Amino acid sequence: MFGGERTDYPMNPSKTADLPEGGSGARGGGHARSAAWLSVLCMGLGQLYNRQYVKGALFLLAEALGIYFIVTRLSANLAGLITLGDTPAHLEKVGRLYKNVPGDHSIFMMIYGLVAFLFLALFIAFYILNVRDAYTVGRLREQGNAAPTVRETLRYASDKGFPYLMLSLPTVGVLFFTVLPILFMVLIAFTNYAAPDHIPPKNLVDWVGFATFKNLLTLKAWSHTFFGVLTWTVIWAILATITTYFGGIFVALLIEQHGIRFKAFWRTVFIIPYAIPQFISLLVMKNLLNDQFGPINQYLRWMGLGGLPWLNDPFWAKVTVLLVNMWIGIPVSMILVLGVLTSIPKDLYEAADIDGASSFRKFRAITLPFVLFQTTPVLIMQFAGNINNFNVIYLLTGGQPANGEYSFAGSTDLLVTWLYKLTLDNQRYNFASAVGIIIFIIIASFSIWNYRRSRSYKEEDMIQ
Amino acid sequence: MKSRRSLKLTLSYILLALIAIASVYPAIWIVMSSLKAGDSLYSETFIPRQLTLDHYKDLFLSHADKDLPYLSWYWNTLKIAVTSMVLGTIIQVLTAYAMSRFRFKGRQTAMTTVLILGMFPGFMSMIAIYLMLLQLNLLDSPWALVLVYTAGAALGMFVAKGFFDTIPRALEESALLDGAGHWKIFTAIILPLSRPIITYIALTTFTGAWVDFIFARLILRSRENWTLAVGLYEMVNTYSSTEFTLFAAGSVLVAIPITILYMFLQRFLVQGLTAGATKG
Fold first, then answer.
1. Does residue A275 share a domain with residue A395?
2. Cross-chain Cβ contact A390/B207 below 8 Å
3. What is the CATH number of the domain that holds A410?
4. Where would you tag: which of A4, A8, A426, B54 has the fewest CB atoms within 10 A of its CB?
5. What residues of A are in contact with residue B173 (Cβ under 8 Å)?
């Protein structure tokens, strides 16, 4: 598997498809330069100059269509992206009656503007491609070769272009259903799109720059909630990650101990929480922990210990979400750790046995370092995942119990569940999207840091 | 020494037994509740005095006093989950394969982009998707949901890419020398070797669609178009205190197929999880 990659590896188009370097200079009279400049002037001209008539005609057509759309549709949409509409809905006197005239819908204008922007970007990318193509083919001609025929071009495209072909459909999907929506939401953070005063079609929405972020961080009503929720999010993410991770190690070691029988049985039973769909188990837990009628409190009362306010007290609700998260998260960590345990060389333990090491010492000196080393990237990604752990909080407590000092958030709300409530229940879209951007910044910094320290990314080609 | 060892073992067994009880207790409790006569959450005994299958029957009968089209929810969910599974798996496998096996211009950028996109909270894009679907007149349609799930499927490609990275290149090189095209290599050599990872992706996309209620709740507006996840969530929020046993029966029927699939295909799940883990 190692050392199989040659530099002229046939599946490596990026190296072979580069512009031919060096070459024999201007033999044939600077075709490359002329073709490229012609293509800058108008798509397809360079190709025609290179005597690639079919390709040239297709590119000309693309230029014509592109210009047509830019002039007739895109420019208006792009302008809309900048102005976000000028005329609000208003009443107009028609004859004797006042009629409601719908105004500009800022939000739709923004979406159309973004779509137009994406198309424009694609068009520009294609334009650049066209110039480069004219240059490359011109270069070929300078070297005394004939320009590729249509058939050669197609064959070349199906060979070198194969990965692009494979990725075309996924790319379109991601572009329109992930990239576009995210761009849209990022833009929203810089507008005043929020209830009650700026909800189209009744009102217009305007750009406000960083005012939303400023309000979020400095305006008392918002900043108090924001920093409160942020603090709990961080505490939650740290505790949730640590408890499930070390819980997983503990359970895995418990099973893998010498002398424990029915290992497969224990493993299977412990995986059950992972196998049950999360939203079911969380909704079930919610009832299980019901203050008055739930069986857990019922048992506690039988034992003479009063029931606990599992979900209704701000402190206990936090304990509860952590406990329930352990129930859900430990099986995953256990599976991972069990995988690592089998990969630890047995002779290490044998050597330790000869030295008379205690089992605790063996754990400290061999097992733990191994497990930590192999699973740290996962640990950090789990931490990032817990910052965004929507399900556990939303399904179990819904952010409750209520907190009178917070705007639109409860005591157990994380930034993500707050974002969800701001969007769906309260229509404070600009604040929601500012919170989303802040979550992104937090997660991104963690991930970048994680990447820098884990080498697997850089060395991926070395496995081959 | 020996007695200390056996004490330790006994303690371990007690712990294992306790954890085992904690693991299965909620599942058994909900099954018991679904079989309990009456409709309340409260039960005097763990095993109900009177066992009944009425609640399961109730789910599939229509009622005048409450609007619970459980059967159509089940059918919607099945339809959406199966279609998303097929399409999503195809998209994800294609993406992962292209990213793993080819070195093309823009590859590194594409991978970084996928990573960065994954760092945004998934439903931050909710409103934009909602507005787009509204404009396309696709709201309240199960196919819109399939479209949303499928369009995002490519972003989960890292586990599969890690898997493809481990298939030796020599296999394709010899096929290339024999004159096989890229498509032929992919279908005849790579796909047959990829059964574990395809199973893993299919299973995770299926369950993803089966349990998602965030986008489902956003897109499916009318009650009879809901999926199980949305329906059950509403059921707990509106009826749980009064109709708990009905909710229990509904949950059991939702959880059973997934739980069986997971237990049955455990091996693939473990492989997928570990592949994703060691790749980072």
1. yes
2. no
3. 1.10.3720.10
4. A8
5. 4, 10
Provide mean pLDDT across the span B202-212: 87
Nearest CA in chain A to B244: A287
Contacts of A284 in chain B (CB under 8 A): 26, 29-30, 248, 251
Of B15, B240, B280, the CB nearest to A254: B15
- Please state the rounded mean pLDDT for residues B241-265: 82
Show Cβ contacts of residue A311 under 8 Å, excluding neighbours closer than 6 positions.
A286, A289, A290, A291, A317, A320, A396, A397, A400, A401
d(CA A336, CA A318): 27
Residues of A in contact with B24 (CB under 8 A): 269, 272
Residue from the list B22, B170, B211 with its beta carbon closest to the beta carbon of A4: B170
How distant is the Cα of B62 from the closest Cα of chain A, in angstroms? Answer: 23
Q: How far is A190 from chain B (nearest CA, A)?
A: 15
Range with the largest mean pLDDT of A102-111, A290-299, A440-449, B269-278? A440-449
- Whether A3 is covered by a domain: the verdict is no
- Give the domain range for residue A153: 13-188
Residue A203, in any domain of the structure = no
Distances (CA, A) of B217 to A353, B82, B123, B209: 58, 19, 12, 12
Q: In this model, does residue B84 exceed pLDDT 90?
A: yes
Domain assignment present for A202: no
Partner B contacted by A166 (CB < 8 A): yes
Number of domains forming the structure of chain A: 2
> pLDDT grade, residue A395 (50/70/90)?
confident
CA distance A376 to A245: 10
Question: pLDDT tens for residues A99-144?
Answer: 777 777 777 888 888 888 888 888 898 888 888 888 888 888 888 7
Give how far B40 is from chain A: nearest CA, Å. Answer: 9
> Do the Cβ atoms of A424 and B126 come within 8 Å?
yes
Nearest Cα to Cα of residue A401 among A322, A315, A342: A315
Q: Are residues A314 and A434 in the same domain?
A: yes
DSSP secondary structure of A86-152: S---EEEEETTEEEEEP---HHHHHHHHHHHHHHHHHHHHHHHHHHHHHHHHHHHHHTTPPPPPHHH
User: Which residues of chain B are within 8 Å of residue A277 when distances are taken between CB atoms?
Assistant: 207, 210-211, 254-255, 258-259
Give the ipTM. Answer: 0.82
Cα–Cα distance measured from residue B116 to residue B100, given in angstroms and rounded to the nearest whole number: 18
Beta-carbon separation of A174 and B117 below 8 A: yes
Distance CA B117, CA A452 (A): 18
Q: Which of A112-121, A140-149, A232-241, A311-320 has the lowest mean pLDDT?
A: A140-149
| Direct distance between the N- and C-terminal alpha carbons of chain A, in angstroms, rounded to an integer | 5
pTM for this model (two decimals)? 0.79
Domain boundaries defined on chain B: 2-60, 70-279
CATH architecture of B70-279: Orthogonal Bundle (1.10)
A162 and A220 assigned to the same domain: no
A7 found inside a domain? no
A residues 234-273 near B, CB within 8 Å? 251, 254-255, 257, 259-260, 266, 268-273
Cβ count near A206 (within 10 Å): 14
For the purposes of burial, counting CB atoms within 10 Å of the CB of B36, is it exposed (0-12), middle (13-18) or buried (19 or more)? buried
Q: Are residues A156 and A259 in the same domain?
A: no
Residue A276 to residue B9, Cβ atoms within 8 A: no
Predicted confidence (pLDDT) at residue A291 exceeds the cutoff of 50: yes
Q: Do A120 and A236 sit in the same domain of this protein?
A: no
Do residue B218 and residue A424 have CB atoms under 8 angstroms apart? yes
User: pLDDT tens, A15-30?
Assistant: 334 444 444 444 446 8
B-proximal residues of A, 36-55, CB under 8 Å? none
